[in-house]
């Protein structure tokens, strides 16, 4: 789709694609103005069809695809858990998980073999989001955890209905595997919920005293207390509350680790391809955390606010997200919504899925200077500099009321990883060696890039980012 957009530069604002029989027509928008109209100014609804597609992962109406009052109420319940100041207080917990991640990198570096980084970062980010969501340690980085394994299996079995291989699309084993994975996930979450509730003779559970944090499960418990205060204590409500909470926890654990992992991989890749960037990163980290990088973990854990004092590191991450956004945004058109193109033409959205295609917008030469070049400096210059980003052109987390709830956490995670590893390791892509051991027919690169993005729910690096790790 990105390549198609580039073939029609004069139609970059809006174009339609007939996707029958796979989906309703797509209305692709790839300019700051048209994206803003769809997401910020009119805030079109999330498609109900996507909720159905992701049901095997989430298990019910989820915060990502809810609409209307149901979404507003649910979002208000969980907003405190992603407050920036609260998340900074969780940096020591993030550091603990990154320390485990570092030990895995050290082992890979000592072996000197080609090493797929994407699966390892997936396990890291899943352990982190579990601490924020459930206030527990899964230790999935060290040994497979039943819930984490079931969730990742469920993601690998997800079908979006667009597979050309008909057996893959309608694999008869899929329903059985998905049922079992859902059973494992819910069994684990039921146990965790029981830790926060105690049965009483009247069968209405008492909520245990909230802990001194704002984990998602804790916020759900607080919300339930408020419901009981209003007199809604019937058994049906208790069951509905339990199912609602399990669905949202599954959603947070899924959405909170998949795209963040990919962002880590692409940050490492772009840093390794640009030695001057790595040098500047190391200088910034020496300045903020001290030249002895072995003490960075303790410094960051004791002074978590320092994680927000690394402007160049932040710029590197933002530029990686610009070049390789992990997802896009899709909304549901409506009869009364028209998108106005750059030439003033009004385009109807009725009966379409409006696709804000980040991959195209983020590299659109109409809005970015040197769009295919990795330039973290564009995030550090003033508004009079040609590199200065155009408003609304960078949107990996989207804007408006439906923006990504976990964007602050994602940025903190990637910053913590870079701060604690970039001075200790050299990580370089090893696709040449990988291809020798895994030959395949056809082109190996997309737009000259071997580490192109592939679809695995979110966008991930091809072949899991095979790399070699060198200890400094």
Strand order of the largest sheet: 1-2-9-6
In the CATH scheme, the class of the largest domain would be Mainly Alpha
Rg, Cα atoms, Å: 23 Å
The helix tally amounts to 19
> Which architecture of the largest domain per CATH?
Orthogonal Bundle
* DSSP strand count: 13
Helix-and-strand structural type: alpha+beta
Largest sheet: 4 strands, mixed
Q: Could you state the CATH homologous superfamily of the largest domain?
A: Cytochrome P450
Helix content: 40-55%
For this structure, the CATH topology of the largest domain is Cytochrome p450
Any idea what the shape is? Answer: globular
Mean pLDDT: 89
Strand content: 5-15%
Question: Which regions are unreliable across 5 or more consecutive residues at pLDDT < 50?
Answer: none
Taken together, the total number of domains comes to: 2
Q: How far apart, in Å, are the first and last alpha carbons?
A: 41 Å
What does this molecule look like?
Pathway: Secondary metabolite biosynthesis. The chain has helices spanning 2-7, 32-41, 48-53, 55-58, 68-78, 84-89, 91-111, 117-134, 146-156, 166-169, 174-196, 216-229, 235-272, 275-289, 296-302, 311-323, 358-361, 407-421, 431-437, and strands at residues 14-17, 26-29, 115-116, 197-198, 206-207, 329-332, 338-340, 346-348, 353-356, 425-429, 453-456, 458-461, 466-471. By secondary structure, the protein is an alpha+beta fold. The chain has 2 domains: 1-60 and 326-365, no CATH class; 61-325 and 396-471, Cytochrome p450 (Orthogonal Bundle). A 4-stranded mixed sheet has the order 1-2-9-6, covered by helices on one side. Helix 7 (91-111) runs antiparallel to helix 15 and helix 13 packs across helix 16. It is globular and about 60 Å long. The mean pLDDT is 89.
